[in-house]
Amino acid sequence: MSIKEEAIRLVEAMPDDVTWAEALERIRIAAALTQADAEIDAGRFVTQAEAEAHIEECLRKLSGASAA
């Protein structure tokens, strides 16, 4: 499905009383999810365990403790 077709599908699924802000937010979310899927397909991601280890390392650095 093309971007234009996806945008049309998203807009058509919105309620009649949607605001511009809500419509744009829904389109931004859809675009972000599409980009995330492409990055995952290309292998550009980290595992949950890797992300948690990175966060712990950053927190240790911020607290002044040396990384072990």
Describe this structure as you would to a colleague.
This protein is mainly alpha-helical and about 70 residues long. It has one domain. It is about 70% helix and about 0% strand. The protein is elongated. The model has no long low-confidence stretch (mean pLDDT about 95).
Descriptive keywords:
68 residues, mainly alpha
Helix tally? 3
User: H/E order of the elements?
Assistant: HHH
Describe the global form. elongated
Structural class designation? mainly alpha
Largest sheet: none
The beta-strand count equals 0
Q: Over the alpha carbons, how many angstroms does the gyration radius reach? A: 19 Å
Question: DSSP strand (E) fraction?
Answer: under 5%
Contiguous low-pLDDT stretches (5 residues minimum) are none
Mean pLDDT: 94
| DSSP helix fraction | over 70%
| Termini Cα gap | 48 Å
Structurally, the number of domains stands at 1
SSE layout and pairings?
Blueprint (H helix, E strand, L loop, with lengths): L2 H11 L6 H22 L6 H16 L5
